[in-house]
Amino acid sequence: MKQIRPLVVLAAAAALSSCGTVGRAADAIWPFNDGGPRERAPEEGRISILSSEQDLAVDPQLATRSIMVPAPTPSSDWAQPGGVASNAPINVQGPSALAVADRRDLGAGSNNTVRIAAPPVIANGRLFFIDADHEVHAYDVEGGRRQWSRRLRPEDSRDRRARGGGVATDGARVYVTTGFAFMAALDAATGEEIWRRRTNAPFQSAPTVAGGRVYAVTNDSELVAVDAATGELQWSHQAIAEPARIMSASSPAVSGDTVIAPFASGEVVALLGANGRRLWGDSLTRAGGLNSLSAINDVAGRPAVDGGVMYAASHSGVLAAIDMRSGQRIWARNFASTQTPWIAGETLYAVTVDGELAALDRQTGGVYWLRQLRRFRDEDDRRGRVAWTGPVMVGGRLILANSLGEVAAVNPATGEVVETRDIGGEIFIPPIAANGAIYIVNDDARLTILR
Questions:
Q1: Which helix (H) or strand (E) element contains residue 331?
Q2: How far is CA 5 from the centre of its chain?
């Protein structure tokens, strides 16, 4: 079994991102192993399994309140890595059962030297995806026919492999970040390269496009804002460089003319999109963890913005709600996560690094319910750690996937797992949803469509 990639720590990420040995280096410092001590299972539904480091517990004051799930809304596009520029999509209309409608190969999958990093995006009937070999593909959503492919690699470099990056689209163009230290714009209809912009470091993150600009964070924690029409650099912001990070492809959030960028140091910074002026910043770091992994502060999931509030979580164990105007925290919880929180109505859903799914009140951070998802391949022997990705809300249900190739549908009002399906392969990239379907890409670049 391959190691569970989302929690692999990438040391000296900027130096290694375009090196062919980066996969072996990352795997060598994989934090989990099959020979670790067994853990005592908690009493179901009462207290967090991470209670030694987290303070999650169901809030008795919320016992009499019911979670209201917003009605599903049709959507034909998922144009950004986070669905929309704010990383806070709607409850997308989708299937009521996890029935496999189609399977397709999208390109090159992960191996010891290269990795699939980011989800596909969908717009105007096309699905765009960058595979592990840095080849961008465009497919017809309905028929699955490949319309074009474009391999991206630097012309003046001996490097032929890199990891990191992702895609976003505005419908007319596809914007690509790469582990080769450049971003590019391609024509969405033909794949023709329109412009290319070199950067000072490779990209692990995927881009976000909004307001005529493309935003992305390099591996040395520099946020760049590039003109979407020309590729010219408009401004940049250098955050604290952090050599230890999580292997993920996060992306900034954009709300109005405010950009929220996550960094490996645990920082989240708000900047003015027009000129890069810093508005406020916060550090989602937590001291006093029980092991060295707790010191990894990376905000590996995407920050999500809705209703004038930003929500984000760090690996070291802070989930916070921050007022977009003032930058003041509204509330914070001890909650270690590498995933993007999902906002639905007045409820926030998030999953911990240990596979515990929680529903929280958006206003107070109080916990409605907790649900422990599968933690190990072999639950009896506590061997083979399982990593979860998601959630996304589709058709009024929370959809998550894991490193065993399982997909789970959860009732958002109660936390009950109502359906599971094994679709095969290892899954580290969150599901996306559009056109009444759920799209899931496994580590072999195999797309499964659920309708």
A1: strand 329-334
A2: 13
Determine contact, residues 220/18, Cβ cutoff 8 Å: no
The pLDDT, as a whole number, for residue 154 is 78
Per-residue model confidence as pLDDT tens digits over 184-198: 999 999 999 999 999
Partner residues linked to 260 by β-bridges: 253, 270
Closest listed residue to residue 282, CA positions, set 300, 302, 268:
268
Tell me how far apart the alpha carbons of residues 268 and 280 are, in angstroms, rounded to a whole number.
Answer: 9
Q: Is 170 helix (H, G, I), strand (E, B) or coil?
A: coil
Q: Which residue has the tokens 């492999």?
A: 161
| Burial of 338 (C-beta count, 10 Å sphere; 0-12/13-18/19+) | buried
Half-sphere exposure of 97 (CA within 13 A, CB side): 3
The torsion defined by the Cα of 289, 292, 296 and 301, in degrees rounded to 10, comes to -70
Instruction: Tokens for 243, please give them.
Output: 């050599």
DSSP-derived secondary structure letter, 62: G
The one-letter code for the residue type at 34 is: D
| pLDDT band (50, 70, 90) for residue 422 | very high
Give me the pLDDT at residue 31, please: 35
Whether the predicted pLDDT of 49 surpasses 60: no
* Residue corresponding to tokens 């030694």: 52
Mention every residue, 6+ apart, whose C-beta is less than 8 A from residue 342. 88, 304, 348, 349, 350, 390, 391, 392, 393, 398
* CA 210-215-220 angle, 5° bins: 170
Cα separation, 451 vs 432, whole angstroms: 12
Which residues are CB-neighbours of 29 under 8 A, at least 6 positions away?
8, 9, 11
DSSP label at residue 118: S
- pLDDT tier at 243 (50, 70, 90 boundaries)? confident
**Domain 5-34+47-450 CATH class label:** mainly beta
